[in-house]
């Protein structure tokens, strides 16, 4: 039962400080395996003033999905993304999973300040309070999505077209012998981490801006687009 979940797993049920209560974080967690590890992560980052979108890989086993759903049902501020992807490593589906959660999060009633994305195998090194104090002190109003102009050794990721295939039941991404067109709007492609801390304003911008939408479409057949998409949009002038 839910009371057992809350009690035995020692979830925090009230904000630990006024500062934290007034600064909500949104989390996107993409998962596909290892339920216990996910629960441990969730318990470590859970705060009642935050909001959590869980993306479960569509190809995860049914009992795994059910178990996650049963945990999520115990919390008003945790939900499973309304649209789920069959996630392929280094494929567009991994980026789409985050975007699906972002759409849900911007439509939620919770007035969150920043969004942080994680995978099920992550674990925090800092407390909720330390995270928000770090954001406020160094990044207030800015995004944390570091990157550099795309280096030569990863240019192939966006120069040829990649396709998602399934071989012996295992999905993977493989290059086709098709050269891609130049990026839309004459954008300079940057390269960085797929993981970020983004402002709500920036997330809303990426969901509606014409350049962002064009870059998203262009990125559909690139390799690991989540490693260039956010960092490139963050470098847009203006």
UniProtKB/TrEMBL annotation:
InterPro entries in alphabetical order: Glyco_trans_14
Pfam family, one: Branch
Main location group: Golgi
Top-level taxon in the UniProt lineage: Eukaryota
Single GO cellular component term: Golgi membrane
Keyword check for Transcription regulation: no
Location in or out of the cell: Golgi apparatus membrane
Keyword Protein biosynthesis: no
Protein name per its UniProtKB record: GCNT7 acetylglucosaminyltransferase
Annotated organism of origin: Copsychus sechellarum
